[in-house]
Write a structure and sequence with these properties.
This protein is mainly alpha-helical. It has a single domain, classed as Methane Monooxygenase Hydroxylase, Chain G, domain 1 (Up-down Bundle). Helices cover about 55% and strands about 0% of the residues. The strands form two sheets. Strands 1-4 form a two-stranded parallel ribbon. It has a two-stranded antiparallel sheet with strand order 2-3. The longest helix is centred in the C-terminal third of the chain and has 37 residues. One of its GO terms (biological process) is immune system process. Keywords: Dioxygenase, Heme, Immunity, Iron, Metal-binding, Oxidoreductase, Tryptophan catabolism.
Length: about 375
């Protein structure tokens, strides 16, 4: 018994290993480079989307950290491989997309508080401070304002399938109200985003390597492809909401605009693309309205189209302010910390389009959908 008690009281030996101190390197961390990141430990789509957000932001920071000077031609293997792996898992391209920057990149300060900008914060940030936070969170609130419209869209399609004009009228009225709320949310951009900071600081981190003169050959993803790959930067055209409302209302854009918009669908999560395809294959709302004798349905439909065109006009005004006014302020030298605003996309959006002609074309073709 005494021997057992002595064994129990035997002190533990003092070792370096207990304190993560190396026998060979002392306090120095041996081989500090991490092993290649793997997606196998991620549990479920929420963690996968968060991983895509983090890797895409690291990638944009790496590529654009020195502005348009000394842009790297190669994305290092230890970043390229896990980024491409998680992108293939999610069905997304390996670049920052709208679903990363906006749909995934938010949190509540007070978990029990409201979904309002004063109670929101971003998960990951680029340079740009409060203006970057405002840009992301106002766009998030536009998406949130669209939720009743998305529900109304489903309600409208089901009403057509059941030939229920009363329910369809309610759905169209709810859709119009939702689009108006989206415009109201979008106007908050003026309060939270400084044009000069957006143009000279934020914008370049949203830029891609397709249709971008600053990086015309694209980017080599080391360990993935020996040839450069080209991907468009972030764009409002990657928001599923506008595509969904266009599909429901039967809005037909020009061939050039449609080509770009459909290419932007490749930058959406696959389930969102499938949602758009389902709307497209549903019975035509416009044809149902045209075959109806209801003046109320005609007017409700037209009000939705007008509201959508008005929302696009607000977007044009904001783009004008943040590109033209922002460029002027940035060039005046008001931001001393900057080496100079980026020049490669001066006339283009971060998605690579000639921005004003594209936005005005989309707005005008929306108005053409009005039923006489």
């Amino acid at each position: 018994m005494e021997t057992q008690n002595m064994n129990l009281k035997k002190p533990m030996l003092f070792t370096l290993e207990k304190f993560h101190i190396s026998e060979d390197y002392g306090f120095i961390l041996p081989d500090p480079l991490m092993p290649l990141l793997s997606c196998h430990f991620l549990k479920g789509h929420r963690e996968q989307y968060l991983a895509h957000l983090l890797l895409s932001c690291i990638t944009m920071g790496y590529v654009w950290q020195e502005g348009e000077k000394h842009i790297p031609k190669v994305l290092p293997r230890n970043l390229a491989l896990p980024f491409v792996e998680i992108s293939r898992t999610l069905g997304l391209p390996p670049i920052l997309v709208h679903s990363d920057l906006v749909l995934t990149n938010w949190k509540k300060k007070d978990p029990n508080g409201p979904l309002e900008i004063r109670n929101l914060d971003t998960i990951v940030s680029f340079p740009g401070g409060e203006s970057l936070k405002g840009f992301v969170l106002v766009t998030l609130l536009v998406e949130k304002a669209a939720v009743p419209g998305i529900k109304a869209l489903v309600k409208a399609i089901n009403a057509i399938l059941q030939s229920n004009e009363d329910v369809l009228l309610q759905a169209l009225q709810q859709l119009r109200t939702s689009i108006d709320e989206m415009a109201k949310a979008l106007r908050q951009m003026h309060d939270y985003v400084d044009p000069a900071i957006f143009y000279a600081v934020i914008r370049i981190f949203l830029s891609g390597w397709q249709d971008n003169p600053a990086i015309p050959d694209g980017l080599i993803y080391e360990g993935v492809s020996e040839e450069p790959l080209k991907y468009s930067g972030g764009s409002a055209a990657q928001s599923t909401v506008f595509h969904a409302f266009d599909e429901l209302l039967g809005v037909c854009h020009s061939k050039e605009s449609t080509t770009f918009l459909h290419r932007m669908r490749e930058y959406m999560p696959p389930s969102h693309r499938a949602f758009l395809e389902e709307i497209h294959s549903a019975p035509s709302l416009k044809e149902f309205i045209l075959s109806s004798r209801s003046c109320l349905l005609h007017e409700a439909y037209n009000q939705c189209v007008k509201a959508l065109a008005e929302l696009r006009s607000h977007h044009i005004n904001i783009v004008a302010k943040y590109l033209l006014t922002g460029a002027a302020k940035a060039k005046d030298g008001g931001l001393d910390c900057l080496t100079g605003p980026p020049q490669a996309l001066a006339e283009k959006g971060t998605g690579g389009t000639v921005v004003f002609s594209f936005l005005k074309s989309v707005r005008n073709t929306t108005l053409e959908g009005i039923i006489d």
